[in-house]
Each structure stands twice: as C-alpha cells, then as structure tokens.
Amino acid sequence: MSAATASTAVVPGMESGHYRSSKLPDVKLMMWVFLASDIMFFGTLIGTYLVYKGRSLTGPYPVDVLDVPLTTVSTFVLLMSSFLMVLALHALRQDDIAKFRLWTFGVAFFGAIFLGFQVYEFAHFVDLGLTLQGNLFGTTFYVLTGTHGVHVTIGVIWLLSILVHSYVKPWTSKDDVYLEVAGLYWHFVDIVWIVIFTIIYLVEFV
Amino acid sequence: MAVSKVTIPAPTPDSMPTAGLFTRPTWTTGIGSWLTTVDHKRLGLLYIGASLMFLAFASIEAFLIRLQLAAPGNTLLSPDVYNQMFTMHGVTMVFLAIMPLGIGFANYFVPLQIGARDLAFPRLNAFGFWVYFFGAVFLYSSFFLGGAPDAGWFAYAPLTSLSNNPGNGTDFYMIGLLVGGIGTLVTAMNLIVTIVSMRAPGMTMMRVPVFTWMILVTAFLIIFAFPPLTIALLQVIFDRTFGTLFYVPEGGGMPILWQHLFWIFGHPEVYIIVLPAFGVISEVIPTFSRKPLFGYPVVILSGIFIGFMGFAVWSHHMFTTGLGPVVNTAFALTSFVIGIPTGIKIFNWLGTIWGGKVRFATPMLYAIAFLVTFTLGGITGIMLAVPPFDAQAQDSYFVVAHFHFAMGGGALLAFFAGLYYWFPKMTGKLLDERLGKTAFWLNVVGFYLIFVPMHVVGLIGMPRRTQTYAEGIGFELPNLLSTAGTFVMGVGLTLLLINIVHGFLRGKPAGNDPWDARTLEWAVSSPPPHHNFDSQPVVNDRDALWVQKYPESVHGERVPASASEPYDAVGIHMPGQSWYPFFMGLALMVFSYALLYHNFWVVGISVAMIFFFTYAWALEGVGGHHLPAGPRTADQSRKEGHA
Amino acid sequence: MHVRRWLHRGLAIAVSVPLIAACEFSGPQSALDPSGPVAQAQKDLFVWTLWLSVPVMVGVFGVLVYVLLRFRAKNAEDESSIPHQTHGNFKLEIAWTIIPVILVILIAVPTVRTIFATEQRVEAGPDDLAVHATGYQWWFKFDYLDHGFTTANELIIPVGTRVVVSLDSADVLHSFWVPSLAGKRDMIPNNDNQVWFVADEPGTYYGQCAELCLGAHAYMRFRVIAMERADYDGWIASFQNAAAQPVSADPLVERGRVLVAQKGCVACHTIDGYAAGTEVGNPDFPSLTNFGLRTTVGAAIADNTPENLAAWLRDPQAMKPGNYMPTLWSADDPSREEEIEAIVAYLLSLGRDGLASGQLTLGGVHGGQ
Q1: In sequence order, which residues have a C-beta less than 8 Å from that of residue A187 and are 6 or more positions away?
Q2: How many residue pairs from chains A and B have C-beta atoms closer than 8 A?
Q3: Structural domains counted in chain C
Q4: Which of A38, A206, B95, C21 is the most buried (most CB within 10 A)?
Q5: Average pLDDT, chain C
Q6: Longest C-alpha distance within chain B, in Å?
Q7: End position of a domain, from candidates C240, C257, C292
C-alpha cells in the first residue's frame, strides 16, 4: 500500500505488531461474548422450567423432594469458591505463585464438593421417585440443574488443568488474563446457580 | 521503501508458555495446507465453495419438488420422499448454503476491510468451518442411512417425537443442527472480538465499512439467537433418547413450546441471513455509482434496530396457533415496525445511486434485482404481518412466495452480487461479463416465473408442503408455470457455475482494484498476500481507499489514509497452522453418529477425543512465525505463501 | 444499450402482471372469494394493504427507473468521472421515516380492529352451532356437541348461523382451514383452540389441513356444506335417527352389510344403525354413519360416486398413499369385484332414504366449477 503523505504518528501497540483497537485483551472479550450467549442457554432452560412449573400430571412434586437447608449449604460452598477465585487471581497478580496454586486448588475443591452435593441430591431424588421420564418436574429439574452441573464440572477440570500446568511451565503475573477468564466463567456459573436456586428451591417455600 | 532487512526472532508474541505435542504442519500447498489452514482467506474460500456445493444440492431438491408438482396426481415422489425433499431443501438452503455464504464473505473480507491480519482466533475460525462442514456431511449422510429428516425445516413437535417419527431422520436433524450450530456460534464470537479489537488505527466504528458493520450486528444476533435453538434441539434429543417429557402431550408437555423456542431463534435467523446481504449491497451500490453510501449513520442504525427488533417479532410465525388477540396484536405491531428500518435502507440505497455515475456491471445488475425483489418480498411480509390475513396465507404458497422473494430474491441475489464483485479480489481473475449478464437475466426471469405464480396459487387455497393437489380448482396453471421457471433458472445457475469455474481457470488478470472501489480490501493485491497488509494501514476516513485515490473529491479537511512506518524487528505475526480444528470437527462428527445410534461407549470415546484435542490445542499455542513488514514484490509474496 | 437493458429488466416484472391477471382468483378454496363475514374481513384487509403497497411500489420502482436512466454512465469517460460525493440529507431521512410510519398506522388500525372482531374467544350460545373438530392423521372428526352425533370430513352447517368450532388433535399438529369462510386455526394437542365463522349462502366450501402432518397430509381435506335451515334440520334429524334407520330390502345391500363385518370394517369404522342394539367401530377412526349422504370419499379427495368408492376399497393406498386403511383383497382374489359391489351398495344406501323421500338435498359447489 503506497503511502501518499505518510502520517508519521506511531500508534501505541504498533511497535510490537500487535495493535488493538480495544483495551480489552482478546481472550477476555471472547469470554464475555461467550458468557452473553451462555446467558441465553440458561435463560432458555430456566424459561422451560418456569413454563412447566406446576404442570406435572403426577408427583413427586417439588415440595415432596426439595431439601432447602441442604442445598443452602452447597450453595454457600459454591459462593465461597467464588471468593477463593478472587483470592487466586489476586495472588497471581502479586506473583505469589504458592498462594495462587493454593487458592486455585481451593476453588476446584469447593466446586467438587458442590458437585458431590448435587450427585447425592440426584440419587436421593431418584430414590424418592423423581425421574427424568416420570413427570415434567423431573424432566425440567434434572436437565436444568444437570446442565449447570456439567458447567461446574468443566470449570473444575479447567482449574485443575491450570494448576497442573503451573507446575509444568511456570505461571507469572503476566499470564493473569488466562486465570481471569477462568474466573469470569466460574463467577458466571455461580451467579446462574443463585438464579436456579432461587427459582427452583426458594420460590417453592416462600 | 526498501524491505527492511531484519533478523526474525523466535515466535509466540505472548508470554504464555506452550508445549508442542506433535510437529506443527507448515504446508503451503496441497490438500494438507487446506486441512490445516487457519488463514481467514482460505477458510473464506472453503466456506464459499462448500456453500455453492450445498446450493447446488438444494437446487436439485427444489427441482425434484417442482417436477412432482408440475401436474396433480404425479407419482414421481411418494409423500415420504417428498417430505424429505422439501425438508432438506429448506435445511440446506438456510443452514448449509445461504448462511455459510454470508459467513464465508465475512471471513474473507472483514479483516481486509478493517486493516487486520486475520480474525482474532484463527484456529477457532478453522474449527468453525470444519464443524459446519462435518455437520453438513452428517446431515446429508441421512439419505443413505435410513432417510433424511422429513418434518419440515422447522420440525414442529410432536411430529418429531419418537412415536410419531421413529426413523433416524429426525435424529439426524436434531444432532446435525446441534453440532453444526456450535461452529456458527464460535465464528460469531470470533468476528465480534475481531471487529471490536482489531480495527486499524484511526478506524472508529463510524468509519467501518457497512458490510463489516452488518456482520457485527449479525454476529450479535447469532450469539443470542442460536442458544434457544440449541436447547430446543437438546430437549427433543432428550425426549427421543431418554424419554423426557418436554414435548410429549401425554406427559403434560406442550408442543407449542417448541414453536416458541424455534422461532425465537428462527426469526433472528432470517436477519442473520439477510443483514450480511444488506452489507454486500451497501458495498456494491456505492462502488458502481461512484458515490459514498447515502446516509451511512442511518443505514447502520437501521441495521442495529432491525437486529434488535428481530427478537421481538417471533410469534408472527404463530398467529394461527391460538395465542389470543392481545398477543397477536402485539406481534403484528412489532412486525409492522420492523418493516420501517428496512424501507429506510432501501431509500438510502436509492439515494446512493441518485446523482452518481452508474455502471451496469454484473454485480450492479444483481444489486438492482435485489432492490426490486426484496421490496416486493417486504411488501408481502407486511401483508403477512396482519394476523387476520395471515390466517388465510399461513402455510399456503403465499408464504412460500414471500420468503423466497425475501431470502431467495433478497439474500441470494445479493450474495450473487457479492460473488461477482469479490471474485476478482479472491482469485486475481475477472469473471466473464457477457456470460455473467446472460446468467443474470436467466436467473431473474426464471426466479420471477417460479415465484410470482405462487402468490396466486396460495391465495386461491393451495397449502404448502403437499405432495400433490386437487384438480379442477385452479392450481394447475400456476404450478406448471413455476415448474417451467425452474428450467430457466436452472440454466442460469448452471451458467453462473460455469462462469466461476471458467474464471478460476482462464479469467483475465484483475489487478488490485478492477472496479475502482472504496474500501481497504481493494488496496492490496488480488489475491491478497498471505499477511494481507505489508504494513499496518492507518485510516482517517470512511471509504479510506477512495479518499486516498481521489482526495480532491472529498469535501473539507481530509487526511488520506497512510501506511505507518513498518513494524520494528518483530514484524508481522503469522499464526501457525494446526491439525486440531480439523480433528475436533471429526471427533464431533463421531460423537454425532455415536449419539444417533445410541452407542454410549463410542459417545464416551469421542468425548475423550474432544478432551484430548482441547488440551492439545491449548498447549500447542498460537505458534507461527514473523514476516518482515514493508512492501514486497509479487515474487516475495508468493514465496511467503498466499491464499 | 443500457436503456434496452432496463427495458428488459422491466419485462421481467411486466411478465408477472399478465401472469397474475390471467389467473382465476375465484374458486371453492379461495381466500379471495369469501362467502362469510370472517373471510370477507380477512380479504378486505388484504385488499387494503395491497392498495397501500401501490404507492410504495410506484415510489420505489419509479425512483429506481429514474436514477438508473438519468445517472447512467454513458461512455468510458463518464465511467471514470467522479460525481459529487453526497453523504446524506437529514431532512430526507426524516421524511422517509415519517411516511412509512404513517403507512404502518394506516395498516395497523384496521388490523387491530379486525383482530378483535374475528379472533376473540366466544362462548357458543343457544343460537350457535357448536362443533368439536379433532384432527387425526389424516382425516377430520366432527362432533356435533348439541345434537349428540359424530361424523367425518364433512361439516354440515346452516346458513347464517355462527358456527363455533373447538379444535383439538389426537396425534400431531393439524390445521382447520376453509378459506371461503375463515382463515386457518391450528389443531394442537393440549391447546384449546377455537375458530368461528358464518356462511352467508348455501354452498359447498372446500377445506384442507394446513399444517404438515406427514404421510398423507396432501390428501387430508374436508368440505363445509352450508344449507338453508329447513334442509339443515332434515340432515341433523337423519343423523340423529341413523341408529333407527330401516333395514334395506335389497339383497345386494344386505350382502354388503354382512361383508363389512366379515372384512373387519366395523372393527374401526362406526356406523350408527349397523345393527339394532349394537354399537360398532372405534371413535378414533372415521365414522361411516349416513355415508350415502357424503359428497366425498377418503377425506374429500374424490367425489362420492360408486366408481370412486369402489376404487378406494380396491386400493386405498393408490388413492391416498400412507393412510391407515388396509388393502382388503389381494389383486387376484376372484370374489373381490363382487364383494366390492355389495359393500358399495351398502355404504351408499346409508342415509339415502331421506334423499329418496325428497326430504334432503345435496348442495352445489361454491365458486363455480
């Protein structure tokens, strides 16, 4: 491209051949865009749950199986994991690698505890007679919370992978964006759970 | 400017440590180079090539349908085969031909128009293509594996339940679209990040070419519209595979929920198809009128408004399902409103031609045909937005006529304009103008012959999706005319394909800028070099290339575009090629078949493969190498390997 | 050159006009040939939007023709000259935003009025005819709720009376569409849909299923037959009295009556009056009560003549591929023709004593044929 009258201002970022028209790193913007679409995924599942709420032809019904105190505990665990996530990111940004590894493990561990609660709950509900095929409550409940559980599982695997990888090739504060996007994902999954918990559990008992 | 002699340091511009699992492919020619490419230009060509192939398949399906309907009582296609034909015609046209054609143009031209080197995530881009391609192969394999989907392209429940539709066809539809949709979603996300983050210095949003703007709006539509479809598909898959009750009336399920979810996706989908077409028209008309787009901010705003409103009209596909007068009124009003910005765009395109110097090259002919046809399609759309009339037209051939005018005469004609417009840039060769114009007339006359009679036959009572029709009540003549039209358009389409092949093989050299155009893609060679721009362009205006060529034609203080001083020693980063997008696509296809055949062991294996490739992909890193910045000769360009 | 090009362009569109004009718009299934107030209101809205679209088309196409002729590049020098690079005109943008808004309002007002006039849910009152229509693959069941009988594929209604049809489906989606009287309304399981209409004059109005239901969807049609009140009352009475219809003395008819049990017909098909004190058939299959009064066979795919009925019995799959009626005789069965003749005679005798006695009339087809 021939320069007619060249404007000689050098634009910041161009020196490294990596000019960006936005201050957000690419992976972070990508994660935000992904989360926007994930909102629609969960929105649709939650919408389906709400449409079919109260329309089951047979039991068991929500009041028969839901255990709010128990699920409150697992919700708290998930919330705490988000707090640990914040700590992990902060530690990485301070180049405190030991703490970064500890808190990252903590997030995964708490996430795994949450999943343990979920598994117990599903098994218990099946015992009580709530199945995928039995009624609309079973169909919508298991698919909605199951999809959320899959998201948590992916998050746990992701965080553990980061942890392992940090031993293979050292992580520094310069890599913080890669933990930050994992954190964004994790917080999103947590917020979705709060919505699900409210709509499925709390609303039944108000 | 001499090419700077620099030493190229080791690759990976970011500090993220990487580990290679296998040797990275580096072919620049041969089939390996196509399977492992991450270059947006090659992927654009792959998308366009695949789309044209599926367009041919869908045209054959349409041709068979029209042969069957040429006279009442025909037995060319039994009802079951006929249902598969129109279902696959619709699915192919919407998901495998027209939408990917727009995405192909976006892939090729968005980075060039904004002065970028590639999309933000090149391997993800490749993955998007392969998932689309393997999803399409999966869908088409249904013809040989028990029958194609046959419940229509929108597959209303409970037609798709296991008891009503036990064959494999519906599973091919559900799983094929679910997996293929992943590709569309990631490409949309990629395009958003690219357009937001990788515009050239000085290219503010209000200087971005209209095509790229429309792609941005389209990408947002995709990320919000595809998830409801994905969930709806998942719900049907669960119903059919695990016995859930989402759409099972006996269990309390409401089939109408499928309609809601499908159309919450489906209506934005038609704007996902047509907004890129609007973008193409907004490039072609200014170029061939030698004037800037009239009312650029208004055209952009209309596009955004259409995108937004596109989510507010979905139940106009459901006016006859008994939603009630209040709901019908609401959606009628929103559907009327959405016609307004579309009309505004049409007026602005007319305003662009006004006062210009019009050249009737083939791209411009298609753009003019688009203006007429899409206006007519829009008018019948407004008619259909009137619920009481819609009750007479819904599921009749009037609706078929409307959406073919809007999508066929609209999007397809616009994309043909884009094909003729951008072919020289992509290949470096010109298409034959005489052949192009002949094909144009055949296509347009054929198109009108096919679809105008459909308005009539719909109004006198012929429902759609019917394998035959009653005699003696006036349906014969319009059907015969429509079938005759397919022969005319068939010749036109064939000539178009011949022109493309001939152009590839023997087209005259095009040069950088055969149309004397306005946007940055015409500033580089045809085809562009692998790295797109020798140096990072800096823009100071809309229509940056035009301002540079003809600064005296522009009012006021305008500083022409320039190239900055080239990069320093680091140079232009070219991302590395990769096998993993291709293999991930393949793994997803294996997953699809495993799910279809309820082979949960193979499902598990394919999930493991997906995990494996995810890790390999992540650990492989961006890779690649650096090229020195600055102008190079054609020879040097070729050595560096270009599309 | 370019002018000719544009004229050729116009030809493509001008070809459409005679195409449209040459086509007949009347017909027994035509939305543009209404015979009742609901269909009339729906057509009126269409015509109104068509008129409003004329200035739009004239405007857009007129300007398009003008700019293409007036501003075309006439030679090579012209092609490389640069016209004034106008960017826009704010006043014009306002104007051509406001005008479409006005057009939209002009369409919206009568639209909303008509929606509320034709689509409100109504309660069937004592002056209405209440019918429950169920869509099956691939036929229509009509239950006359107030009169206590069921028929299939033919809806007999009195002229000038509001008919309120509640809609349901026994399997997949179907749709009830009789264009001359009203637009379609979908039959969706677990939805409780309703359509109502009035027929202004006697006649036979054609209907068709207008929602893909796979299989023989193209062959799922029905008739609405509107009659003067006196004739209608006679028809209703003949259905209500069908169970008590006299046994025919004709031996062929009696042979047919025996055969429909032997061949298994009455395992599926209900026939009121088949045998005194017995009920036969299954409500999920088309009723054959008073079949002799039906004007069509196979869900309105052929006229009810002895030849068509015989063809149907001989090979129902040939007439309606995929439907659930089995083929009752193999092609080389020697008794086939004789048995078919007897069954045809029996079926066509059902309800016909009313015709013979002149109490009933069969109406003409609406829309002319």
Answers
A1: A82, A85
A2: 173
A3: 3
A4: B95
A5: 89
A6: 82
A7: C240
Q: Is residue B19 a part of any domain in this protein?
A: no
Of the residues C172, C177, C324, the best mutation for testing chain B's interface (the one with the most B CB atoms within 10 Å of its CB) is C172
Residue C27 or B441, more confident? B441
Quick check: is C81 in a domain? no
pLDDT number for residue C367? 41
Hey, which chains touch C, using 3+ CB pairs under 8 Å?
B
pTM of the model: 0.93
Number of domains making up chain B = 1
C29-48 pLDDT per residue, tens: 999 999 999 999 999 999 99
- Is the pLDDT at B8 greater than 60? The verdict is no
C108 and C10 in one domain?
yes
With beta carbons under 8 A apart, name residues in chain B contacting A20.
197-198
In sequence order, which ranges of chain C are alpha helices (DSSP H)? 2-14, 16-22, 37-70, 76-80, 90-118, 229-240, 251-262, 265-268, 306-314, 316-319, 336-349, 352-356
pLDDT tens profile B439-474: 999 999 999 999 999 999 999 999 999 999 999 999
Reported as a single tens digit per residue, the pLDDT across B539-592 is 888 998 998 899 888 866 555 555 554 444 557 888 889 999 999 999 999 999
- Can you tell me which residue has the tokens 């919508």? A140
Question: Cis omega before residue C138 (within 30°)?
Answer: yes
Residue B596 falls within a domain, yes or no? Answer: no
Identify the domain boundary among C188, C215, C240. Answer: C240
Task: Flag whether the ipTM exceeds 0.90.
Answer: yes
State in words which class domain A26-205 has. mainly alpha
Confidence of residue A3 (pLDDT cuts 50, 70, 90): very low
Give the whole-angstrom CA distance, residue C63 versus residue B418: 24
- Here the CATH number for the domain that contains residue B77 is 1.20.210.10
Query: Does the CB of A206 have a partner CB in chain B at under 8 Å?
Result: no
Give the C-alpha separation, A117 to A74, whole Å: 6
pLDDT tens for B63-86 read 999 999 999 999 999 999 999 999
Residues C188 and C262 in one domain: no
Domain, as residue range, for C18: 2-24+36-72+92-118
Tokens of B577: 């090629």
Q: How far is B639 from chain A (nearest CA, A)?
A: 19
Q: What is the pLDDT of residues B174-225, one digit of tens each?
A: 999 999 999 999 999 999 999 999 999 999 999 999 999 999 999 999 999 9
Q: Is residue C220 part of a domain?
A: yes
The reply to whether C152 and C236 lie within a common domain is yes
> Is C29 domain-assigned?
no
Backbone angles phi, psi at B88, to 5 degrees: -70, -30
Task: Quote the minimal CA–CA distance from C241 to chain B in Å.
Answer: 34
B245 lies in a domain?
A: yes
Written as six digits, the tokens of C300 are 């309105």
Helices (H), chain A: 26-52, 62-65, 68-93, 97-127, 136-168, 176-196
C200-235 per-position pLDDT tens digit: 999 999 999 999 999 999 999 999 999 999 999 999
Q: What is the DSSP letter of B82?
A: H
Any domain includes B598 = no
User: CA-CA distance, B533 to B81, in Å (whole number)?
Assistant: 51
- The number of beta carbons lying within 10 Å of the beta carbon of residue A98 is 8
Q: What is the CATH number of the domain that holds C280?
A: 2.60.40.420
B227 to chain A: which residues are within 8 Å by CB? 37-38, 40-41, 43-44
Range of the domain at B487: 37-576+622-640
Token readout for B502 is 């001939």
C-beta separation of C364 from C204 below 8 A: yes
Nearest C-alpha neighbor of A147 from the set A120, A122, A113, A182: A122
Pairing of strands C162-169, C193-198: antiparallel
Q: Which residue has the tokens 């417009």?
A: B421
User: Do C153 and C236 fall into the same domain?
Assistant: yes
Tokens representing residue B520 in the block: 């940055």
